[in-house]
Design brief:
By secondary structure, this protein is of the alpha+beta class. It has 2 domains: about 140 residues, Fructose-1,6-Bisphosphatase, subunit A, domain 1 (Fructose-1,6-Bisphosphatase, Chain A, domain 1, 2-Layer Sandwich), CATH 3.30.540; about 100 residues, D-Maltodextrin-Binding Protein, domain 2 (3-Layer(aba) Sandwich). Helices cover about 30% and strands about 25% of the residues.
């Protein structure tokens, strides 16, 4: 696992160098078939990370947002979102991040969230404590939804759910993309609820949340894998699970 961690750190360093070159500069923006934006920076980062994986781990699979899948020959697959939060990146708001995950037989075993502008990095590995800039972090205690602060990227993800969140939670915070999950790990946020996420949006998150003492699952309470449908519930305090699942089921 230490070999994998060193490799993902190197990949995050390389991604950050590219992103800082483009941040708050003029760059090309295209619209993909799903109507979401993609920038030259997204493509440049993923291209570089794929080069690194091919050099160091040629038998591993790759699933990236911009260039599609490469089949694994050994059960290991790297899952890459070069810039999670492209819209934030486009407007110069530093709440986006690079997501790098490693899955073994479809289950996440390593995850990294890297914010290259503020230079904040979370690394989680299966069975290991989560590190934030090299130091162990821990989620905070919160045993009631009424006392919990919940975050989500956009109400458009959950048209039937989001209005009810204001009645169930202490406070609702919008925006943040992957950065919000890092805030859970650091004990500043209690919950994130999202829907419609792709595999590369969530695969890095379980080792980070769980290694900090939290819980992350789908809306049915199942662990996240590469086959999950993209409905995500992340909690700093695992004791909130049944309350949160009951809310989502309703």
């Amino acid at each position: 696992m230490q070999e994998f961690i060193q490799l993902t750190e190197y990949m995050a360093d390389e991604a950050g160098t590219i992103i800082r070159h483009y941040f708050r500069q003029s760059f090309e923006i295209d619209t993909k078939e799903d109507e979401t934006p993609v920038t030259a920076a997204d493509r440049a980062v993923e291209k570089r990370l794929r080069e690194i994986i091919e050099m160091h781990r040629p038998q591993d699979g790759i699933l990236g947002e911009e260039f599609g899948p490469k089949e694994s020959q050994n059960g290991f697959t790297w899952v890459i979102d070069p810039i999670d939060g492209t819209k934030s990146f486009m407007i110069g708001r530093p709440t986006f991040g690079t997501l790098i995950a490693l899955a073994e037989n479809g289950a996440p075993v390593l995850g990294t969230i890297d914010q290259p502008i503020s230079q904040e990095r979370w690394i989680g590995a299966k069975g290991e404590p989560t590190l934030f800039n090299g130091k162990t972090v821990k989620t905070r205690s919160c045993t009631s939804l009424k006392d919990a602060i919940v975050g989500s990227t956009s109400p458009s993800q959950m048209p039937e759910t989001w209005p009810k969140m204001y009645d169930q939670f202490k406070s609702v915070i919008w925006g943040g993309d992957c950065y919000s999950y890092g805030l859970i790990a650091n004990g500043w946020l209690d919950c994130v609820i999202e829907s419609g996420l792709a595999t590369y949006d969530y695969m890095a998150l379980p080792p980070i949340i769980e290694g900090a003492g939290g819980l992350i699952c789908d809306w049915d309470g199942n662990p996240l894998t590469m086959a999950s449908e993209g409905q995500i519930l992340a909690l700093g305090d695992a004791s909130l699970k049944e309350q949160a699942l009951t809310f989502l089921a309703a």
